[in-house]
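step: validate -> pass
step: tokenize input -> pass
step: predict -> running
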Amino acid sequence: MPPPERTHAVLLRNLPLRLLDRARQHSDALVREFAFVVHGGDDSGVPARLLEIAADSDANYANLNPEAERLCDDALARGEEFLDVEVTVPSHFRDHILAAVPVLLEVEEFCRSGQMLTLVAPDDLRAFWVWYLGEFVRQIEGQPPQPWPT
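step: predict -> pass
step: emit ->
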């Protein structure tokens, strides 16, 4: 029997809920558009790599923290701006993020090239992603939480 998987609690302090919502919408739009590109016959390159990351994320990490997602959605519906929320992720989530970052940077360049309807993420969303993904990496490595700067 394999040993139990090690997990880490990650505290997202001062999580900006509207930015989180916009980041989700932007990511969903990219995945939808890239799926059309791949379905249209281009099954190599940046669109295919992004879809692989999205599929891996969905298969391995979707619904890990349904209570945290519900808390975020409820707070957003109430009009709250920020929320402290704790999520639990497996230790290997750090490696998943570090492997995904180069592809995400390629995605930005691909969007910037003008070949897509979905535009490159604006500066505030890019800053959000740097902070958000960085918090998972940092905290899995044992560093303390850093709140979203307001």
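step: describe -> The first helix runs from residue 17 to 39.
step: cleanup -> pass
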